[in-house]
Amino acid sequence: MQRVVFPNKVLPYFLVAPQIILTVIFFFWPASQALYQSTQREDAFGLSSMFVGLDNFRFVLSDDNYLHSLQVTAVFSAATAILAMAAALLLATAADRVVRGKGLYRTLLIWPYAVAPAVAGLLWLFMFNPAMGTFAYILRRNGVDWDPLLNGNQAMSLVVVAAAWKQISYNFLFFVAGLQAIPKSLIEAAAIDGARGTRRFWTIVFPLLAPTTFFLLVVNTVYAFFDTFGIIHAVTGGGPAKATETLVYKVYNDGFVNLDLGSSAAQSVILMLIVIALTAFQFRFVEKRVHYA
């Protein structure tokens, strides 16, 4: 492996300086502020504060509403990640078999990723709105009592599908790249040996996609925890009866709506620790099953 040597010793630091500055400003500084505020009890306008130590954390962890949001987040993130990755893998394998117009199909499947989360949420809300939604009308016509504004399970299903739809395009790109990286000689050898269809996919193709799948598992988990706020806010607003209030949405409700700044900061710190722990767990245990060629 060839080692890169810079003639100017200061140049490498100038090259990485913009990234370091952005990381400090937009990650380390807000994280330190949240950690500081989580130990304070502040008034609604942030004009006065009092040090309370870990009282905010004790209050949050003993709050039934917070524990309920934790359960909602676990269900929502797992369902979103599984659905988004499964649908993307299915579309990627189908697009990989197309001979004519392959580029057109891939372009059309990538477009949804350019849609903003709030816009994606509104699209699905309009389609499934119980008062004027086209798909809501079809469901009611077929005997389904569809009303996600009152039914918590239906609301959860709607936000899961909307969030997964938004992420499918991202997963699709990586799965297509992974499929293209698989040597065709392996597929042809498996076909000669008699491995066909589903068996060939699960025994040859999918194990070779393990690095891509693991990467997307981590990315989709983080996406479900953080980047789905706009979708939930646009579709259900955390309702009905907090049925879709995830941890990140509860941080918003307590901090910006109820103006409980100390509790909101404590929740954001706990959420950050949960995501870090979950990502570390995936790298520690799930990655053992990943084989890199």
UniProtKB/TrEMBL annotation:
Residues 70-282 form the ABC transmembrane type-1 domain. It is a multi-pass membrane protein. It is found in: Cell inner membrane; Cell membrane. SUPFAM superfamilies: MetI-like. The keyword Transmembrane helix applies. The chain crosses the membrane at residues 12-32, 44-61, 73-95, 107-127, 155-180, 201-226, 265-286. Its main location: membrane. InterPro entries: MetI-like, MetI-like_sf, UgpAE/MalFG_permease. Pfam families: BPD_transp_1. Keywords: Cell inner membrane, Cell membrane, Membrane, Transmembrane, Transmembrane helix, Transport. Gene3D superfamilies: MetI-like. GO terms for biological process: transmembrane transport. The keyword Glycosyltransferase does not apply. GO terms for cellular component: plasma membrane. Belongs to the binding-protein-dependent transport system permease family. Part of the ABC transporter complex UgpBAEC involved in sn-glycerol-3-phosphate (G3P) import. Probably responsible for the translocation of the substrate across the membrane. The complex is composed of two ATP-binding proteins (UgpC), two transmembrane proteins (UgpA and UgpE) and a solute-binding protein (UgpB). This is sn-glycerol-3-phosphate transport system permease protein UgpA. It comes from Allorhizobium terrae. The gene is ugpA.
